[in-house]
Structures are given as C-alpha cells and as structure tokens.
Amino acid sequence: MKHLKAFDEAQNDIKAVQKRLSTSSTILSGIQKNMAHLNLLQIGALSLIAVGSVFADNPCLKGPPVPKNAAECCVTPFLVEPSAFMTCHSKWIGQTKRQMAMEGIPRGCCVAECVMNSTSLYSNGKIDREALTKLYLDSTKSMAPEWNKITLDAIDGCFKMADSIKDEIEAGAKLTPSFDGEQICHPISGTILACMGMTLFAECPAKLFTVNDDCNKLKSYHSKCPFL
After folding, report:
1. Which of 185, 12, 222 is nearest to 111 (CA)?
2. DSSP character for 126?
3. What is the mean pLDDT of residues 3-22?
4. What mean pLDDT, rounded, does the chain reach?
5. Coil, strand, or helix at residue 210?
6. Topology (CATH level 3) of domain 59-223
7. pLDDT value at 64 more than 70
8. Among candidate residues 224, 184, 206, 201, the one with its CA nearest the CA of residue 92
9. Of all helices (H) and strands (E), which one includes residue 5?
10. Where are the domains of the chain?
11. CA–CA distance from 143 to each of 27, 105, 133, 222 (Å)?
C-alpha cells in the first residue's frame, strides 16, 4: 500500500502538464472532425483526452476527489513497472512543475518521453506501435482474458487520435526553450500515455472493478481527467 500511495503522489505532480497537453481547444477541434469515423471505444478515448480545459468549469483542476490510487480500484495493463516511472519522474519533475505555469502551445511531457525512452519505444517524434503493443499485451498475460481486446482497441483509438491532431503535436515539438536548461520533449509520448491510462481504466470490466464510493468517484473523475 505504501508503494501505491507513493506512486499516486508522483502521478499528481505531472497531471497539470498532461492536462495542458491533452485538453487544448485545438485538440478538441481535431478530434471532433474525426469522430464520424471512429467506433464507440475510440470516441470515448478521444473525449477523455479533449474535454478538460476547454471549459471554464474544469473538473480536473482540483485533482482526484479521493486519496485513492486507481490500481486499488482496477489493476489495468501497464507499459512499464512503477520503478521505471519513478526514475523518470524524479529526473524531470522539476522542469515539469516550472512548465505548469507557462501559457501558449502545450509543451511535451518529458516524464512521459523518458518512460518511452526507457523501453526504446520513442525515436524522432515517433512511437513504435508494434513494440508498445507487445509490452502492453505482455502485461495482460496473467490478467483476465477480456483485457486483450480492450487493450488492442485502446491502442488503436489512441493512435488514431494522435494522428488526427498531428499538427498540434508537431507545433509543440518545435517550441524553443523558454528558460535556461529547459529540455523540449515531443508531445507524442504524453499524448499516447495519457490516452491509454484513461481508456484502460474507463474500460475496466465490471467484474474486475472494486465497487465502493471512493472507486466510483475516481472512475467518474478519470472519465474526464487524464493520468498516466
């Protein structure tokens, strides 16, 4: 439990940057143009990514309504072990916090890019979809069989979403440093990881989801607000 709590606290530190990346009005516009061609799961993934900061009454600003880790409600497929995430978090959270206060085009999340680099999934603005799929599916081998299709559908939806907003993603990648020592990371990593985390949690099979007040509140929150 202590491990889950520490991991959850680390996630909270980077949520603001993920929201900036995933919820701009330009991203919402790009998603709306593509919804007619997507199935229900894909539409859910795109909506989760897009709606946050577009509206004045942003439900994500205050963070989760309960001090509970999502893994206590539903254990979902994962890309990397928590220790790998924490290594990246420790390295980049200082810059990430500084970027939280910046306006303009959303900046790429270096925590997410670090995670992708730790598995050799990222190169030159591209994510190796085949390798990413293998890692996610490997994590489902000891899980309920329903997760296989859910994971494949989520990957398909998230990559289609990213492709639909590629102009906005590339604009973020072309930013120049705004302060001494700032590292510019490509937004594609944060886009994919945020989408996958939200979609998998939202699609947790009913028989695997812990039903209680806290978990129900967390599920409602993450139907609108991203996390890795």
Report:
1. 185
2. E
3. 46
4. 78
5. coil
6. Recoverin; domain 1 (1.10.238)
7. yes
8. 184
9. helix 2-22
10. 59-223
11. 33, 39, 16, 22
